[in-house]
Write a structure and sequence with these properties.
globular; single chain; mainly alpha
Length: 307
């Protein structure tokens, strides 16, 4: 049996790709800091390894179920070792998640279970998300909206747009929904959700020819040119959501400064429209993701000092 050294493991779980977990997390922390002026350090420190472990497990599951031609491209372990690593990561994630649910309620348990389900179904099953036309929707929603929902929930006790409670005495499960609160929060998360979705969309556009007969992505269904229009439209919608959130009073007015990032983002988009290459221009979608969310998080944090 080959030794499981750290470098090999980090390559196996593609640790370098975990920006999608970090930046929505930082954006949510900035949003909480703006709203409340404080951070729940204990819960946040528990959440960080839980989220990272789930993200790594999803990547490992994806590699585990690849066909032999794809497996040759990655530093894989044997089937049994990779399965063992996946089980360990998921068990530790589940333990940390259950403890957070114990601290913060059933809503967090439900949302965490949803993340786990999406993570597994992403690669496994008769119709995995990664090969479907709704992959961008699922990845953007989970990476952007759901991650920000969890981080806000564990840091702000007053944040309860979705309340799930179980009464032991009456053995009754109740669900309270603040629809306005959910919608306004959802709009706040759109810059993260839509720019994350564009990372997957860019990947699928670059792989359109390779995936023609094996993956029925949104690019396969609407065509490359319409996919490129969608790519541009998602960025536009993300910037528009910032303006709407400011008008609604959900985020500070200084967040309008995020619109300045339109300059580098537009340049990157133009380059991508000219050439869709996995090796040359795919990374531009990741750069846009980082630029937008870094500016968004910084402006929200600064907004606290302007109250």
């Amino acid at each position: 049996m080959k030794m499981i050294n750290l470098k090999r493991f980090l390559d196996f779980v593609e640790i370098r790709t975990k920006l999608a977990t970090i930046f929505p997390f930082l954006t949510a922390l900035a949003y909480v800091f703006y709203s409340t002026g404080r951070i729940n350090v204990k819960s946040t420190l528990i959440y960080i390894p839980a989220a990272l472990l789930l993200d790594m497990a999803v990547t490992a599951i994806n590699h585990h179920f690849e066909d032999d031609s794809e497996r040759e491209k990655h530093p894989h372990y044997s089937k049994w070792i990779s399965l063992g690593l996946i089980v360990v990561m998921l068990l530790v994630f589940a333990g940390l998640g259950l403890y957070l649910a114990y601290l913060h309620g059933l809503t967090l348990l439900l949302v965490g279970a949803f993340c786990l389900l999406v993570g597994v179904v992403y690669s496994v099953g008769p119709a995995p998300i990664s090969k479907s036309s709704y992959g961008e929707l699922a990845s953007g929603f989970v990476v952007g909206t759901v991650v920000m929902f969890i981080v806000t929930t564990i840091n702000d006790p007053q944040f309860q747009p979705l309340g799930l409670a179980f009464d032991v005495q009456t053995f009754r499960l109740s669900l309270d929904i603040d629809l306005i609160g959910l919608v306004t929060f959802g709009i706040v998360t759109l810059p993260a959700a839509l720019s994350a979705a564009n990372i997957m969309l860019a990947n699928n556009i670059c792989d359109a020819e390779v995936d023609r007969d094996s993956r029925y992505t949104v690019v396969h269904n609407i065509g490359r040119q319409n996919a490129l229009r969608l790519f541009v439209g998602l960025y536009c919608a993300g910037y528009l959501s910032i303006i709407v959130s400011v008008l609604l009073g959900s985020i500070p007015m200084i967040c309008l400064a995020v619109l300045v990032t339109l300059v580098p983002v537009q340049k990157n988009v133009q380059r991508f429209l000219q050439e869709q290459s996995k090796a040359k221009t795919f990374v531009l979608s990741v750069k846009n993701f980082v630029v937008i969310l870094a500016a968004y998080a910084l402006c929200m944090a600064l907004g606290r000092f302007l109250i």
